[in-house]
Amino acid sequence: MSWLVLLRAARDGIEEEREMLEAHWAYLRRLHAQGKLVVAGPSWTGDDPYGIGVFDLRERGEVEGLLAEDPAITSGAMRAEIRPLRIVTR
Fold it and tell me: Which phi and psi angles does 84 have, rounded to 5°?
């Protein structure tokens, strides 16, 4: 099973929190290197920015556990929504 994660800002001004964002991006790169994260990056429509991540893990609890260690989540800067995803092609 795979999982789509949408990350949205939980407070204003997080784009100015460079240290937190750098730690968040480094964390995502580590998860990718470990084969847990397929792809991740920002997206936006107008004034609605958000981050997208696709995790290739069996259980939702595994994704929840990884998100609980993400600096963007632990700092309270972002909140996550997890949705099941069936990858049809890579």
Answer: -65, 150
Residue 7 CA to residue 79 CA, distance in Å, equals 6
**pTM of the model as a whole:** 0.91
Domains and CATH numbers, the chain: 2-85 (3.30.70.1060)
| Grouped pLDDT means (10 residues each) for the chain, 90 residues | 95 92 97 97 88 97 98 97 93
Q: What is the DSSP letter of 15?
A: G
Distances (CA, A) of 59 to 8, 35, 43, 49, 50: 22, 15, 25, 27, 23
Q: What sign for the dihedral angle of Cα 35, 14, 50, 11?
A: positive
